[in-house]
Amino acid sequence: MRTLIVDNYLPDSPQIEHLYKIVCDAAVHTVEVRDYSTLGVNEELKQYDAIVLSGSQRKLAEIGVAETYAAEMELIRRHTRAILGICFGIQLIGLAFGEDVVDIGQKLDGYYMVKVIEKDELFDGLSDKFLVRESHEEMVTKIPYEFKLLAESPNCPIETIKHTILPIYGVQFHPERFDDKHPAGQMILENFFRLATFYS
After folding, report:
1. Alpha-carbon span 14 to 60, nearest angstrom
2. Does residue 176 carry a catalytic annotation?
3. 174 is catalytic
């Protein structure tokens, strides 16, 4: 199994190193990292069984930012294998499928309770409510067409989405930022890569 992490962070951000380590632990076989700016609009990524879209310090609601991610959004629309969009990544998925991203007027940073509203294999082994790490100032405003809502929270009505046909998931939280007291993120990542193996 071959996994690509698309690095959406600013250059030399330590967050991408952490994400790489965690994905290497959860995924099977090869994990590669590429900066979003190196992706071409017409690029084929069929050689990857799974793609993980990282978070970012950038804000998609700011003028001109979304345009710099046009190639990545085109790849999201065209890829037919497993995709997991994390935080900024779910926002890119929303934009790619025609919805808006808005500033929520504050920064959520810490562990927050998320509630499952539709059962899915992504949540195998978890209860209907679990704690995960949030760190964001923006969110998707509506569920994109052909997606369904899987989880919500009081702070963010769209916490997890899934495409109704393709294995494309988006989570507003950071599953890679788990610890012994908050293990839900680790389980979600392991479940995603198990699903990716099935679809590869």
Report:
1. 21
2. yes
3. yes
Q: State the pLDDT confidence band at 46, using cuts at 50, 70 and 90.
A: confident
The CATH number of the domain holding residue 116 is 3.40.50.880
Question: What predicted TM-score, i.e. pTM, was given to this entire model?
Answer: 0.95
Mode of pairing for the β-strands spanning 2-7 and 30-35: parallel
Catalytic pick among 72, 79, 87, 156: 87
Residue 99 belongs to domain spanning: 2-199
The tally of domains found in the chain comes to 1
Question: Could you tell me which residues come within 8 angstroms of residue 108 by beta carbon, excluding any fewer than 6 positions away?
Answer: 134, 135, 136, 137, 155, 156
**72, 134, 159, 176: which is the annotated catalytic residue?**
176
Residue 163 a catalytic site member? no
